[in-house]
Amino acid sequence: MLSLHGPEGALAPSEAGGAAVPTQAVWIDLNDPTPEEARAVEEATGVRVPSRKALSEVESSSRLRRLKNGLSLSTPMITFESTDSVLNPLGFVLTKDHLVTVRFHELRAFAEVRKRVHEGEEAKTGIAVFLLLMEELVDSLADSLEDMGAELDRLSTRIFDFDVRARPAKSDEAAPPRRRDLALRRILRGIARRGKVLGKIRASLLGLERIVPFVAGACEQVLAQEETDARFETIRRDIESLDEFETRLSENVQFLLDAALGLINIEQNNVFRVLTVVSVVGVPPTLIASMYGMNFKHMPELDWAYGYPYALSLILASAIIPIVVFRIKGWF
Hints:
By secondary structure, the chain is α+β, with helices and mostly antiparallel strands. The protein folds into two domains: 268 residues, 2-Layer Sandwich (Beta Polymerase, domain 2), CATH 3.30.460; 60 residues, Methane Monooxygenase Hydroxylase, Chain G, domain 1 (Up-down Bundle), CATH 1.20.58.340. It has nine helices and seven strands; from the N terminus they run βββαααββββαααααα. The protein has a seven-stranded mixed β-sheet, sandwiched between helices. A hairpin with a 2-residue loop joins β1 and β2. α5 packs antiparallel against α7 and α5 runs parallel beside α8. The radius of gyration is 34 Å and the shape is rod-shaped. The two termini are 66 Å apart.
């Protein structure tokens, strides 16, 4: 889809030539463009519109390039679709007269910039629109990190209140093992999902962190723009602060993962403890029963009238005594 924006707001494609680009267009936004739309933009601007494959290159030399009459930039950018997060390439082709953006997913930052331009925000040059986009992209990532921080706080409460939450309502008894296992599985999945999202946010921040100083350094020389460095510096500082915030959140995710694994180890130890108690309780009765099951001719208890009740009582006592001892020690 092709969207055109001039200094005063949105523009319509020229009727002549179908998707032809008006000369007054400053910002040309291509969302999953068709070959016809890409050709029309190339004819109007004189620059090549990069493909999705080209924008997906990971080398710094491919993501930050100087062209004959401008700059070619690309970065991965996170977006949220339903309950999942997706990392798609985002491209910028910046010249003296135009800004061409190439994307393959909806981004809230683009809608906010269109709104700001419509409300009268200055967007007379491509670099002005580029700065607006950088500000909104950074703000969008900041909102995502704030939401992630709140989610991690809720997840932390679930983990450290696990024993309380795992108890049935109006009961002091622990929840069944199956229910506790399912709760721990949900916690682990929640930690994994948030860790994955943080990784994608970090990749987005890293891309913007490389783009901003590159454009600031080439702004006057390549684009012939006398833009002050104040806005570039503000964006750079915002990205640095978000980097630090993301690092703390990543450390928090690792801490919660360790805590969840610690809970799993405790649950496993509880199972092994029960098995140990059962095996210890079963050893003395087995020993007594096996002893009286031996086929020896001279066994005093065989001729004793109370030999059988005596053996049964001995077996029962040997099972009860360990249970009482373990109960007193609080093993179960």
